[in-house]
Structure formats: C-alpha cells, structure tokens
Write a structure and sequence with these properties.
Chain A: It is an enzyme of class 1 (oxidoreductase). The complex is a heterodimer. Chain A is of the alpha+beta class. Chain A is built from 8 helices and 7 strands, in the order ββαβββββααααααα. Chain A folds into 2 domains: 106 residues, Ubiquitin-like (UB roll), CATH 3.10.20.30; 136 residues, Fumarate Reductase Iron-sulfur Protein, Chain B, domain 2 (Orthogonal Bundle). A 5-stranded mixed beta sheet of chain A has the order 2-1-5-3-4. Chain A has a two-stranded antiparallel sheet with strand order 6-7. In chain A, helix 3 runs antiparallel to helix 5, helix 5 crosses helix 8 and helix 6 packs across helix 8. Chain A is elongated, with a radius of gyration of 22 Å. By secondary structure, chain B is mainly alpha-helical. Helix content of chain B is 80%, strand content 0%. Chain B is globular and about 50 Å long. Classes of the chains: A alpha+beta, B mainly alpha. At the A-B interface, helix 7 and helix 8 of A face helix 1, helix 4 and helix 6 of B.
C-alpha cells in the first residue's frame, strides 16, 4: 500500500525586483524529520514548481552559516522575523508564511538589503581605534572579567536585523537607527581602549534618529535570536547620554 | 544647538511628567473634593479661581506644555508602524495603548478645555461649579466620553512613568523594569478609581 507522503505547505511572498509589486506563490515540500525553512527553500530551488504544478522561478533568499551565527537568512516566518536556518518545521504552524523583512529594502523575493545597519555602525563609531601606541600583546589595558561577560554577550550580535524588523519605530518613514547599532555602541564603550571614543559614540546616539527615537516597545529584546538584553543596554545608554548631554550643556 | 533633537525628545518626556502629570494629579485631586459634597467642590474651585496670576499660570504652566507634548507626541506617534498583532508581547501592547490613549486624551483635552474653560467660562460667563458640571455630566454620552477621557489620560500618564524611568536611565535591569511596570499599573488602578468615583458624585 502506497503511503501518502506528509507535505509541508508554504505560502511565500515573492517580488521580482526592488520596485516590482509583491505577489504570493504556494509550494509543497516533502516532510522529513528535523526539516527547517532553509532546507525547504533548497528543495523548492531544486524543483521550482508551485503547489498547483505551475513551473516558476526559484525563490531567492540568502543564507550562509546554517547555524544561527551569520544572520544572513533572517526573514519573516509566520509574522515574526527570525533566522530561517534555525526555524524548524516541527515548531511552525502550517501553512508556513514566508515574507521578506520589509523594514529593509527588498532586493528580490526574501532577499533584503541590510546596508542601513552597516551605515549605522559607521555612524556610532562601532569599532576600537588601534593607534599603535601599545604593543598588541604587552601591557594592553585589561578588562574586568565581569564586564567581559557582558561584552561577549553583546558581541554575538550578527546584524541579522530581527530587532529592526520587530521595532515599531524602525521603518522607512523614520530615521531611527534601531536597537542593534545602539547595543554595539555600548559594547565598544565597555572596551578599555574603545571607551576613549565613548563621547563620540554618545554624541552620535544623540543625533536625530538616535537613542531618543526609542519608543520602549521592547520588541527587540524578544526578537533577538542571540538573547542580547537590548532593552537593558538601551536603558544604560539613556543614562550615559543624559549625562553626556548635561556635560555638553554645562562643561563646554 | 548641539544635541537639539535629543533635548527636544527629553523635554517632551520631562514635560509629560513634570507639567502634565503634576497637573493631572492636581486636577483629579481638586475634582475629588466633590466627594465631600457639592459645597466642598465649589469651595475648592473658588480657591483655585482666586489664585494670583491665574491666566498666565494656566497658559505657561499648563496650556503650552500640553500643546508641546501633544503636538510633538502626535508627530512621533504617527511615524511608528504599530505591530502588536504580529508581535503580541505585553510591552508592545503597552506601547500601542500608550499611543491610542494619547490620541484619545489629545482630543478629549481639547474638547474638555474648549467646552468648559473657553466657551463655558471665558466666553459664556458660566461659573464652573457643581451645578454646571452636574448639568453637563447628566448627559450619558458626555459622561461616557468623560470616563473614556479620564481612563485614557490616567493610563497615558502612569504607563508614561514606566517609559520615563527608562528614558532617564533610572531603571535598566529586567527586574527593576518589571517592578516599575507593576507599580505604574497599580498607580493606574488607584488614580482612575479615584477619578471615576469623583465623576459619579457629579450625577448623584
């Protein structure tokens, strides 16, 4: 007796180019244990035929590490922004709806352009200046291990953009840089050499679209796949920027 | 000016608590004197009306901050893409409600000030007192709008205190934020109970 194979039903929002109109197509993929969304998209890529048997183009998406480290495969799955590689079919309600994270400009189908996040990292001075006055391995300033634990947590940010998509205040009509770059400013402010540029970072966060645009919806901390305590660091940055604003007002 | 946008946002936050919040509490306190009887209420209204420099104080300490906080707030709120149906977390609903109650309170306050302070008192020459308020609130529709306006204003204020505590970096950790969140919710229940009780005394 032929056993009917269990199928996984996908409804995917597609878009042919940055300025084209989105449309949906439905697909069915054979179920197998431990199947995830990226593996399902690979199946669709191998055989791009819709549920109704119509031949179509392969769905475009991005992925890289396949272990929730690189951030590339972030997309909106059943309404929530998350990593497609870590989204197990067994944990998802069917039909599974995939859309691009439309907070960002869509390149094609599920592929988005996240360069705004990198531009924000440039704005907030998201690096440590090494000016050559120390030998790298000798007598470098040390970091308290407790601070290092916090820094490690924030350093795991993979710029995936889940927090940006979840945040109601990050969108095309707002200048808000969003949670991820702000947490990075905090990370580099914690660094013993990085803190030399703390003032520049806090000043950058006080620009239009900076920290003060946060509306405290706290979606970011829920959406973060790396469990970075974003709201806690935003509150700490609030404290730091308030002090810096007063210093700018009275000390200069 | 350096940090201009930052300071505007911070003054927006500060005005909400120091000017609007303080006035809201004073207002509910004064209105609550009706619980001691109509004469008691009329006495406290008369005491306020006898304040020196009343009109400049009303304009500078109450009117302008409300206009500043309200207009700027609407501009900020309209920029958000509200998504509580996609991200149905508690704080996201609070974020959404903070904006909905803001719109309601904004309309309610304009109407409230227009009908009572401007048309009623300044233009109509009505003495704002128990008799006048009894007449106004005896209309069930008006009473209903007052209930909604009161609840929205109080919610916006108390939930705003939660945001305030984070904006000013007073609490940062999850435990501290949870404590403030519960405390502000309790404050909402307390203040709105007082306000609602006072409202019912006008139609007794």
């Amino acid at each position: 007796m032929a056993e009917t194979k269990k199928k996984v039903h996908f409804i995917i929002e597609r878009q042919d180019g940055p300025n084209s109109q989105p449309y949906t197509e439905e697909f069915e993929v054979d179920y197998r244990p431990a199947l995830n969304v990226v593996a399902s998209l690979m199946e669709i890529q191998k055989n791009p035929v819709t549920k109704d048997g119509k031949k179509t183009t392969a769905v475009v998406w991005e992925c890289n590490c396949l272990e929730k480290v690189c951030g590339a495969c972030m997309m909106v799955i059943n309404g929530k922004a998350q990593q497609a590689c870590a989204a197990l079919i067994d944990h998802l309600e069917q039909p599974i709806r995939l859309t691009a994270a439309r907070t960002f400009p869509v390149v094609r189908d599920l592929m988005i352009d996240r360069s705004v996040m990198f531009e924000s990292l440039k704005k907030i001075h998201g690096w440590v200046d090494v000016d050559g006055t120390w030998e790298v391995h000798n007598d470098a300033p040390r970091q308290n291990p407790k601070t290092a634990t916090i820094a490690y947590e924030i350093s795991r940010c993979m710029t995936c953009g889940c927090c940006m998509d979840a945040c109601p205040n990050v969108n095309q009509s707002s200048e808000f840089i969003g949670p991820a770059p702000m947490a990075q400013a905090h990370l580099f402010n914690l660094h013993p050499i990085g803190e030399y540029q703390k003032e520049e970072r806090l000043d950058a966060l006080m620009e239009k679209g900076g920290l003060a645009s946060c509306g405290n919806s706290q979606n970011c901390v829920q959406a973060c796949p790396k469990e970075i305590k974003l709201t806690e660091y935003i509150a700490k940055l609030n404290r730091d920027t308030n002090k810096q604003a007063l210093r700018n007002l009275f000390n200069k | 000016m350096k940090n201009f946008d930052f300071w505007i946002r911070r003054i927006h936050s500060l005005s909400g608590v120091i000017a609007l919040g303080a006035f809201l509490l004073e207002h509910i306190f004064t209105v609550s004197t009706v619980m001691g009887g109509p004469a008691n209420f009329d006495k406290s209204v008369a005491a306020l009306a006898a304040m020196p420099f009343l009109v400049p104080i009303e304009i500078i300490a109450i009117g302008l901050p409300i206009a500043f906080h309200g207009i700027l707030g609407v501009v900020y709120a309209l920029k958000a893409k509200n998504n509580p149906l996609r991200y149905g977390y508690w704080n996201n609903w609070m974020f959404y409600l903070q904006r909905i109650t803001a719109y309601i309170a904004f309309i309610f306050i304009i109407w409230h000030v227009w009908t009572l302070r401007i048309v009623g008192k300044a233009m109509g020459g009505h003495l704002i007192g128990y008799d006048f308020m009894h007449k106004v609130l005896s209309d069930p529709l008006t009473f209903g709008f007052y209930v909604i306006g009161l609840l929205s204003s109080v919610f916006h204020f108390t939930n705003g205190l939660f945001g305030f505590s984070i904006t000013w970096g007073i609490v940062s950790g999850p435990r501290g934020q949870r404590v403030v969140s519960i405390a502000t919710l309790a404050l909402f229940v307390l203040i709105s109970s007082v306000g609602l009780t006072a409202l019912t005394h006008f139609v007794k």
